[in-house]
Amino acid sequence: MAEQQRDIHGAGPCQQVDDGITRVFALLGKRWTGLIVAVLMPHPAHFVDLRRAIPGISERMLSDRLSELGAAGLVVREVDEGPPLRVTYRLTAAGAALEPALKELKDWALVHLPQSWPCAGSAR
After folding, report:
1. What's the DSSP call for residue 58?
2. CA distances for 94 relative to 49, 73, 84, 91, angstroms
């Protein structure tokens, strides 16, 4: 059995996942993160507008994901002292630079992920 597995995998070392891909999916692979970036792509948004645009996301989760995106340098939080106090989130240049990649993923999904796929629409 061990001999068969060596033949399947070859004599060389196992391939490692690229560090860049690992870092991208560690951040953008988390639930809701890509949707938040997509909502912010055309223009900045207030917290409440983000929550409305992403049905199913809790305030706590939205806050956590925005904090992570801010720590990664993709989103900036701007406070307007008001009255009333309003918080706006916008993409940084690094966040906006994701637009071509997100467009490619969207186009890929239209071709390769059928609408009837079990998870299609569950995070809308």
Report:
1. -
2. 22, 7, 30, 7
